[in-house]
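sry for the spam today, last one i promise. C-alpha cells for design, 78 residues
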C-alpha cells in the first residue's frame, strides 16, 4: 500500500508541474506567477484531495478549466 501512495504522490506532483508549465505558456506568465496562481486555485485543492478523481484528467484540459472558471486569479496579471 505504501508503494501505491508513493506512486500517487509522484503522479500528482508531475501533474501539477505540467499544469503550471502549461499555464505559464498559455498566459505568458513567469513560472513563479503561474505557480502562485495554481496554488491559490480550487483546482489545486481538488487535486490534492482527489476530489472527483480530477487528478486523472489531462493537464491541458485542467489548465483551460482553471483559466475559464477562476478568472479572479488572473485579475492582477498584466
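last one done:
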Amino acid at each position: 500500500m505504501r508503494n501505491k501512495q508513493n506512486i500517487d504522490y509522484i503522479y500528482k506532483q508531475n501533474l501539477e508541474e505540467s499544469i503550471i508549465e502549461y499555464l505559464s505558456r498559455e498566459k505568458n506568465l513567469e513560472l513563479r506567477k503561474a505557480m502562485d496562481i495554481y496554488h491559490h486555485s480550487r483546482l489545486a485543492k481538488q487535486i490534492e484531495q482527489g476530489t472527483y478523481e480530477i487528478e486523472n484528467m489531462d493537464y491541458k484540459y485542467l489548465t483551460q478549466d482553471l483559466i475559464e472558471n477562476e478568472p479572479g486569479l488572473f485579475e492582477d496579471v498584466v
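Residues 2-71 form one domain. ok im logging off now
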